[in-house]
Amino acid sequence: MGYSKDQLLACLKELQIDFSQYEHPVVLTVEAQAKYVGNLGGALSKNLFLKDKKHRYYVVSALADTKVDLKVLSQRLGLGKGGLRMAPEEALGEILQVPLGCVTPFAVVNESARHVSLLLDQGFKNQECCFFHPLANDMSISLNAHGLDKFLKSIGRNPSYIDLEANPPVGKDQPPDLAAYVPSDSPVLPDLPEKAPSSQDSTGDSVGAATKTAAFTAKAVKPSGNAKNVKEKSADSARPSIPAADAGKFVEELLDRASALLLSEISEDSIKQHGGQLGAEVANNVKKCLREDLKNLATIFKNTAYTEGFYAGTRCQPKRL
């Protein structure tokens, strides 16, 4: 089990760090938090939990109005333009050991987060105090950058403040200025992001594997007479709609599309051309055609979940003991 809210507050008191605490209903966004503490004189913060392609993790903590461009940040870390994405939700529990909506600099207190890189907005230093969730989003605490630094140093962290809005050129003679913040001793965790896809981690790979199995099975079956007619249809025919309220209909449309694509790829000519590699060729083509549909579906599911969670949090008024 990771640190609890009460343990964190006790730790801050033991370190004699000045802070104020404010209880409020569960909130999932900065806007919702602002309704309860936005008029108290401190700066609000937004926090991102990110991962790169090698499954190294980052917490980026910034002032609410700081513009964080993930493509620029990725380049500055030396990861290329598309090297960063939002970490999957299950990583919150496995690595940071906090629930959704509770990512803050304090989340690196747990041993499981020892390899997570923490990047802090240099704007925090200019604020009299800043608000953060203390590992739970039914409370906000305010403290200054000095107090945050004292806590981080107590757990062996050297606070790293950077200009998150900077966009320095990166090239052959201009190395990435934030490359030193990429975790170098982080273990590779290839299985974690595959458990539950997010909008950035599409299910393309798993669908590809299933499609490949079906393709190899279909390879041994003589193409039906309808295959030629299906082949004549454009591979870029209208994509199935993605109705948020009718998942069953979308699944049926997606299966119909997959079946049509599968049949369209199997013909006497393709069998002669690819031979034993036909299954892999078919799987790759079907995967390519379905990737965008699945990404759109995953995005809808994630956005719906976030929206429902937000409204549930704003309606919920937990009883205080």
UniProtKB/TrEMBL annotation:
SUPFAM superfamilies: YbaK/ProRS associated domain. Residues 24-150 form the YbaK/aminoacyl-tRNA synthetase-associated domain. InterPro entries: ProX/PRXD1 (IPR040285), YbaK/aa-tRNA-synt-asso_dom_sf (IPR036754), YbaK/aa-tRNA-synth-assoc-dom (IPR007214). Gene3D superfamilies: YbaK/aminoacyl-tRNA synthetase-associated domain. Residues 164-208, 222-242 are annotated as: Disordered. PANTHER family: PROLYL-TRNA SYNTHETASE ASSOCIATED DOMAIN-CONTAINING PROTEIN 1-RELATED (PTHR31423:SF3), YBAK DOMAIN-CONTAINING PROTEIN (PTHR31423). Belongs to the PRORSD1 family. This is YbaK/aminoacyl-tRNA synthetase-associated domain-containing protein. It comes from Hibiscus sabdariffa (roselle).
